[in-house]
Design a protein that fits this description.
Blueprint lengths: L3 E4 L7 E4 L6 E4 L15 E9 L3 E11 L4 E11 L4 H19 L7 E7 L2 E7 L3 E2 H7 L7 H20 L12 E3 L5 E3 L4 H5 L7 H5 L9 H4 L1 H4 L4 H17 L9 H10 L5 E3 L4 H10 L10 H17 L9 E3 L10 H5 L8 E4 L16 E7 L7 E6 L6 E4 L3 E4 L8 E4 L9 E7 L4 E6 L6 E4 L3 E3 L8 E4 L12 E2 L2 E2 L2 E6 L5 E4 L13 E3 L4 E4 L7 H11 L3 H29 L2 H15 L3 H10 L4
Antiparallel strand pairs: 1-2, 2-3, 4-5, 5-6, 6-8, 7-8, 9-10, 10-11, 12-13, 14-15, 14-18, 15-16, 16-17, 19-20, 19-23, 20-21, 21-22, 24-27, 24-30, 25-26, 27-28, 28-29
Helix pairs in contact: 3-8, 3-11, 10-11, 15-16
The structure holds adenosine-5'-triphosphate.
Adenosine-5'-triphosphate (ATP) binds next to strand 4, strand 6 and strand 8.
Length: 618
């Protein structure tokens, strides 16, 4: 019999879970919040199902409330979540109890009446809204909205998401059907971050654990946050960008592709959705930023809000200015430079220690114009176009430097550094990438094994040697069961080449020493804590150096074999010639040789040379 949750009196927000009979009783107690979110299931009457999503069904229902002086019936929408494993139920209820008062305080988020349990399923009772942006699109010509409407809804939603983020929550399920419309035609966030509340919880539905969000709108890091993640604020930027594109064009991103195909396009091939031409330049710019593969290169909601507001002003002044054209691809993944959004996330202040910014895929610190300096003055705009005056040790006058060419160093660390946790622990990889360091020393780090950024103090970290794309790596000899599958060669771990580095330090590796056939096309992954760098100079002995050459390209061995065969043939021919020469002095050819010798004696050397091939035995 399915799990059942029963409310216990007198504290209504406490549950007892039991497996059918009293012997199997397990208690899950959820401490009630100061607001009382519990709704008695007997006061709810389900009417009909409005929709079915990955996480559960939405029902239209009636909520009966009565007291001595009133008796009311309200229409409500109920989200009945799919069954969760028992361990997950308590964690989910705790998280929900924490988020509920915050959501109620937010203007742009769907009003949550409370929580109940119907047929053993956690049921979230919400205000019923008459429709969604998705419904409005379905009713409109071409399934799309006009640019002024898109901008207006876009502003509503960016404001709501910003507010939601300010409470340290992510939505992770942004899509037009989740944008509800209120009585004033304002867009409201209809999803209060269900995928985020479910992060890391044991789920009974394998589809749910497979995709935490709606596949067509999911950011690359959202597919496997603990492997290719983590998820962060900018994960919502991707979903927002997809939703805006759909509102503008009427086409759902990756429409017609299966979940597996979308995964391959977004995560493996690093493809981006197409953006229509003819949009206001700020919108086009910000939208193309939404689809940067590395979320650190994407804009934040504040950047988006600013772009949408200024475009709305531009449209108000000239309504005919923008006509949408065909779609353009928003480009290949950007691995070689920092986006303007990346650079705008940290602004320099007077007194900051800085150094020249290194290229994203390089770790080289040599030849830096400013190996270390102090900001002594700020000039021009707040943005990255501005300049700063930097005092460098040994140089008399401060240097005038563009802000974007410098990075802030705080307590010896800078965003992008490779770090290791001083204290070993098993939950996640100890080696990761620093995402931010505040001036007070608090840090955020991406580690494999964690779905979100790790937050802590700089004193808990130590710097480690960085990895970069193009390096050859091999699993350390003491690693017997690596976190990810790895190739073997000659009975030991094979050497692979780093082709991509994820924001949590996870290394995507291929094996150029293996013939590119079948499985080798797939990228392998590696935990940076488990690998060591292999280089030609670090290989001891000729054999090891040769093996390393073999690892660099699969063609080395066949080429060497071909070269060997060619050399052997050449040597064979030469030896053959040498052996053949004395044969020619045998009796059979004696006459000819004698004749030639005679000619030589006559002083006709040229003829002697021409006569030799004729004498070669057949
Ligand atoms: N509070 C609400 N009032 C009215 N309609 C709602 C409400 N919440 C959701 N809906 C509508 O119900 C339908 C289903 O929503 P639901 O969020 O369950 O499904 P989904 O968005 O397809 O999937 P997911 O489970 O991934 O969120 C959508 O069309 C949505 O607009």
């Amino acid at each position: 019999m399915a799990n059942q949750l029963i409310s216990k009196q007198p504290t209504p927000f406490e549950f007892v879970i039991y497996e059918g009979d009293a012997d199997n009783m397990r208690t899950v107690v959820v401490t009630p919040n100061e607001t009382n979110p519990w709704i008695d299931p007997s006061s709810l009457k389900l009417r009909h199902r409005i929709g079915r999503g990955l996480f559960g069904d939405i029902w239209l229902a009636t909520h009966h409330r009565s007291a001595q002086d009133y008796d009311e019936y309200h229409e409500v929408a109920i989200k009945m979540l799919n069954l969760m494993k028992e361990d997950g139920v308590k964690a989910f209820l705790d998280r929900f109890a924490n988020i509920l008062p915050k959501c109620r305080a937010m203007k742009g988020v769907c009003w949550l009446h409370g929580i109940s349990v119907i047929d053993g399923k956690i049921s979230i009772v919400m205000k019923f809204y008459e429709g969604s942006v998705g419904d409005k699109m379905a009713r409109s010509k071409g399934g799309k909205l006009l640019l002024p409407d898109v901008l207006r809804y876009g502003i509503n939603l960016a404001q709501a998401i910003l507010e939601f983020h300010s409470h340290e929550n992510l939505v992770l399920n942004l899509k037009p059907s989740n944008f509800l419309l209120d009585e004033n035609d304002q867009a409201i966030l209809g999803d209060f971050g269900v995928p985020y509340l479910l992060l890391g919880l044991p789920l009974s539905n394998s589809d749910m654990s497979l995709t935490l969000g709606s596949p067509n709108y999911m950011a690359p890091e959202q597919w496997e946050p603990e492997v290719r993640g983590p998820v962060s604020w900018e994960s919502d930027t991707w979903g927002y960008g997809c939703s805006i594109l759909e509102m503008l064009t009427g086409d759902q991103p990756w429409c017609g592709r299966s979940v597996q195909q979308i995964y391959r396009s977004v995560v493996i091939n690093q493809e981006k959705p197409q953006i229509p031409g003819g949009l206001p330049p700020e919108i086009e710019n910000v939208l193309s930023g939404c689809f940067e593969f590395d979320f650190r290169n994407r804009p934040l909601m504040t950047d988006i809000l600013q772009a949408f507001k200024s475009s709305q002003d531009a449209i108000m002044n000239d309504e005919t200015a923008f006509t949408m054209r065909g779609k353009t691809n928003s480009g290949r993944p950007n691995q070689h430079c920092y986006s303007e959004w990346f650079l705008s996330k940290d602004s320099l202040q007077e007194g900051d220690t800085v150094r020249s910014r290194k290229a994203p895929i390089s770790s080289k610190l040599e030849n830096m114009l400013v190996p270390e300096g102090k900001v002594v003055g700020l000039e021009g705009s707040d943005g990255q176009d501005g300049y700063v005056l930097v005092k460098v040790h040994g140089i008399h006058d401060p240097l005038r430097m563009r802000k974007s060419t410098l990075e802030r160093v705080t307590h010896g660390f800078t965003a992008g550094d490779w770090v290791r946790l001083r204290e070993e622990q098993n939950q996640h990889s100890p080696v990761g990438i620093l995402h931010s360091i505040h001036r007070d020393g608090t840090v955020a780090v991406g580690f494999i094994g964690l779905e979100t950024l790790w937050k802590g103090q700089h004193s808990e970290l130590q710097m480690v040697k960085p990895y970069h794309v193009g390096q050859f790596v091999r699993l350390k000899a003491n690693v017997f069961s690596p976190r990810f599958e790895w190739e073997q060669k000659r009975g030991t771990w094979a050497t692979g080449k780093i082709i991509h580095i994820y924001p949590n330090g996870c290394l995507a590796v291929n094996f150029p020493g293996r013939f590119p056939f079948g499985k080798n096309h797939e990228r392998f992954l590696a935990d940076p804590a488990e690998v060591e760098v292999v280089s030609f100079s670090s290989c001891q002995g000729v054999l090891k150096k040769y093996h390393h050459l073999e690892d660099i390209h699969w063609a080395v061995r066949p080429l060497l074999v071909a070269l060997g065969l060619f050399t052997a043939m050449k040597v064979g021919l030469l030896v053959g010639k040498k052996i053949a020469k004395p044969k020619m002095t045998s009796e059979k050819y004696q006459g000819s040789i004698t004749a030639t010798d005679d000619q030589l004696t006559d002083g006709n050397a040229g003829k002697s040379q021409h006569s030799f091939p004729l004498l070669w035995p057949k």
